[in-house]
Queue: 2 jobs
Job 1
Amino acid sequence: MIITDEQKTKLIKNNLVYMENIRVKFGRVVALDGVDFTVGYNEVVGLLGDNGAGKTTLIKALNGYNQISSGNIYFDGRHADFSSPKDARSAGIETAYQDLALVNIMSIARNFFMGRELRKGFAFFKFLDKRQMNKIASRSLKEVGLKNIRAMHETVNFLSGGERQAIAIGRANYFGAKLLILDEPTAALSVTETEWVLQLVKEAKEGGLSVILISHNAYEVYDVSDRFVVLQHGKTYANIKKEDTNPEELIEVIAGRLEK
Ligand SMILES: Nc1ncnc2c1ncn2[C@@H]1O[C@H](COP(=O)(O)OP(=O)(O)OP(=O)(O)O)[C@@H](O)[C@H]1O
Ligand SMILES: [Mg+2]
């Protein structure tokens, strides 16, 4: 889509995320081939597409995990050139990865604070403030409904998929993120856990956050999303407001049998 400079300035201002003409290559594989993507303020965008469509690559381009070979990214009105997910996190982007990048051998509290650990003491005598971290993590995780965990110093090995997602969402709430990215959050969850995670997405939106919700399943994410972006073979295939579609139609679009 060709737009004027004036239109572009407006789009950057009115959206939390504005990505234009994004290309990402892995060797000779072109994973993203000129993708445009936006997320509004306080908007939930369902990012859909078949296996290998480029969904994960797109959000990893946004949060600095993947380097882009061309294109532009703006976040919250500013040109964003994050060189790592840690950079993106300090700017307000909290990501829960598809492979649930929690560090299994670390405690729940350490995973909650990952990269933002609290310390006490001074100068060369700084120690991790484990007690305070346990307290804060425990309180924040209770708020997102994580009730059954025994202790914050336990490692995350034993947590279920839903509980792992809840840690990411609790972290976003506590650290005041502006954007929460959930990559296939319900892929391995039971029905009850799926409902819980989707409810947390609703609450995140009510709390003022924007959310990118990646999924294969149009039925699952339809309710909580405001808009859908469908990727196909590394390109933007459709961009549809919720009121202009329904889950049955979205399935056809994802499969490439219907153009919208
Ligand atoms: N690190 C990598 N090295 C090489 N190719 C990669 C790498 N990461 C992704 N790709 C390729 O880029 C394309 C897009 O992959 P991506 O993981 O973004 O798809 P996806 O839409 O998230 O799929 P899924 O629904 O299976 O998670 C695929 O062809 C994939 O094989
Ligand atoms: Mg993926």
Job 2
Amino acid sequence: MTINQLKRKIKELELRNEELRASVGNEALHGWKPDVRIEKQYSWIYTWLYPLSVYLDKTVDPPTRNAVMTFVTATISQMSIHGKYGVKIPNDPQEIDTETYFKKQREYIQLNYDPCDICGENRITHQCHIIPRGEGGEYHKDNFFTLCPIHHHLFDHNRLNKDEWAVLSELINTKAQSAIVYFREVREKQQIEFWDKNP
Ligand SMILES: [Zn+2]
């Protein structure tokens, strides 16, 4: 993809986001209610968070908005993970990590990526959520591994082998407390299930 194609793509996405915001943030929206249309684009958690974000944009200053959003996201995530897996993660809200975001954009444009935490591949890597985005996992380096596309896919589908897992199992200790608990109590159990079935 050329830089110009990339810029066009970003512009397209910005326009779509604007449309989305306009569709949700109408005057009839008294506070916070879910918008099911968002689910198709993002995930169920954002059917709740998106309208809240639009509402707060209009009613409070940006720092307050960010503080409320990070707190609410962390709380919904905690409740959802407890409901889904019976696992109680700590509530440790972290504001969206803009530094990582801009670094990712630069890497993308310059085709210059951090190496995969598992294999060192650096032609292309992803910032891979430990607590998934769809479960309220935050966009923050303390909730990311850097993984090549293959290891990212294997990680998301609990199909890493024991040696690969051991590398992440060491690295996880440098991450957020909520990510550590999720890794041990949710992901590791699914991994072990895979190893049991595929000895
Ligand atoms: Zn890799």
